[in-house]
Design goal:
By secondary structure, the chain is an alpha+beta fold. Helices cover about 15% and strands about 50% of the residues. The radius of gyration is 23 Å and the shape is elongated. The structure holds zinc ion (ZN). Zinc ion binds next to loops.
Length: about 170
Amino acid sequence: MSLDDDILKGTSNVAEECTDTLEQEQHCITVSQTLRLHNESVNVRGVIVGISEPIKMISARTFICNTCDIKLETETYDRPRFVDSQKKLKCPTCNSNVAITVAYDYVNVVKVKLQDDGSDVQLEQLTCLLFGDDTLNIHPGEMVEVKGYVEVQPHKDVLQAILYAQRIAS
Ligand SMILES: [Zn+2]
C-alpha cells in the first residue's frame, strides 16, 4: 500500500466517524434514559401523559433607574426561570439604589409529563417544559420527540431532571 492510499484511507475513516456522530445526535433516547442524565442536550421520545395549565416563566430581567429614567442592565436567560435572584444595583449616573426597579420579560410555558410507550416499560415520568408556540396543540396520549436540555433542579426535597424543550415534534 502506498502512502497516498494510507492518507485516503485515513480520510475516509474520519468521514465515517462524522456520519456516526450525526446519526447519534438524531437518535432518540427513552424517558427512562433521560431521567438518568444530569446536565446535557438530548433528543427524547415519549408519550404525553400529563399537561399543565399554561404558566409563565421569566425570560429576561431589566434594571431601571426611575430617577434618571434609564435602563441600566438587561439579562436574557437561555433557559427561562421561575424565580429571579434580586441583587442590589446602584445607578452609575445618580449613584442611588433606592429608585431602582426591576422589569421582567415573560414567556408562556406548559409543563408536560412524558412516559415511555409500551406494556413492559417503567412508569417513570419526565417533566418537560414547553415554551411559546410549542405550548399550542399539545394532546394527551400523543407520541412526541422532544429536543432539549436536561437540567438538574430542586423539586420539593430532592433534585430532579427537568427537560427544557427547544423543539417538539409528533
Ligand atoms: Zn439613576
